[in-house]
Design brief:
Blueprint lengths: L13 H14 L7 H5 L5 H12 L10 H14 L3 H5 L7 H16 L13 H9 L22 E2 L3 H4 E4 L6 E4 L2 E4 H4 L3 E7 L4 E6 L4 E6 L16
Antiparallel strand pairs: 1-5, 2-5, 3-4, 5-6, 6-7
The protein binds a DNA duplex (21 and 21 nucleotides) through helix 3, helix 6 and helix 7.
Keywords: DNA-binding, Nucleus, Repeat, Transcription, Transcription regulation
GO molecular function, one term: DNA binding
Subcellular location: Nucleus
Length: about 230
DNA sequence: AATGTTCTCAACCGCAATCTT
DNA sequence: TAAGATTGCGGTTGAGAACAT
């Protein structure tokens, strides 16, 4: 149980960092609410988790953002909006907090856009569940590793080689037919080179070469178009 | 040098999702 | 199955640093 005034707040001291690092070396990460009980550290589990994930973890890169990272973040943000965790998952060594701060203090100015840009908020529980299911988030363990395509044995390409890739340069209304399914580029609103791979009768995976992203598209028969959700930030 | 202003980023907060009992 | 605990996310805050006057 977290709460009361028993936990310290504010910046972490070197000694607190050492205690937390020692704890994780012995017990591993996770079970954050056990940290204070075991180590005596006067910090909430939530605070311990944040400190480890954003600062102490050896996988966190502390260097300045490179041009390549900036470029990747800008493209991912264009695609995903303020889904910082998803974006960070595609930028090796960077945390969601780092990416968010970097965007708000540097990139948004560089691009001349408002940093208060809102994410396309899900309106309902099912919407937010769909939104979560619609992108492959790398597990926290394999932070930054690309999600592989689903097992190729179980997949059948919808298109032949030539047809497999569809160049989507703008947001026009061109329709593309995939066997008996059809979708509108404008509703997807992605740019780049996409490849659709059939996983099952109900599920496609899109591969964007430009962004190295794999995204599942789940058909939703309850919607009159076949798009589970739209990217209204585009 | 002193003071005021702006910027950066670590950490907090509230909420929702997920897990555990 | 329900309720409480825990985890994870994105928005926001505020202390300290950097810059301007």
């Amino acid at each position: 149980m977290e709460g009361g005034n028993e936990y310290k707040k504010g910046l972490w001291t070197v000694e607190e960092d050492r205690i937390l690092t020692d704890y994780i070396r012995v017990h591993g990460k996770g079970k954050w609410n056990r940290v204070n009980k075991v180590s005596g550290l006067k910090r909430s589990g939530k605070s311990c988790r944040l400190r480890w994930m954003n600062y102490l973890s050896p996988s966190v890169k502390r260097s300045d953002f490179s041009e390549e990272e900036d470029d990747l973040i800008i493209r991912l943000h264009n695609l995903l909006g303020n889904r910082w965790s998803l974006i960070a998952g595609r930028v090796p060594g960077r945390t969601d907090n780092q990416v968010k701060n970097h965007w708000n203090s540097h990139l948004s100015k560089k691009l001349g856009v408002s940093s208060k840009r809102g994410k396309p908020k899900a309106k309902t529980y099912s919407d937010s569940k769909r939104a979560k299911n619609n992108f492959c988030t790398p597990s926290s363990e394999s932070n930054s590793k690309l999600q592989p395509l689903p097992n190729s044995e179980s997949n059948s390409k919808i298109f032949g080689d030539h047809e497999a890739a569809a160049a989507i340069d703008g947001f026009d209304d061109e329709m593309m037919n995939i066997q008996d399914h059809s979708f509108s580029k404008s509703k997807v609103g992605f740019s780049g080179m996409w490849e659709a791979t059939m996983v099952s009768n109900e599920k496609f995976w899109f591969h964007n070469d430009d962004l190295n992203l794999y995204s599942p598209y789940l058909r939703d028969p309850t919607l009159d178009d076949h798009y589970p959700f739209q990217f209204d930030n585009l």
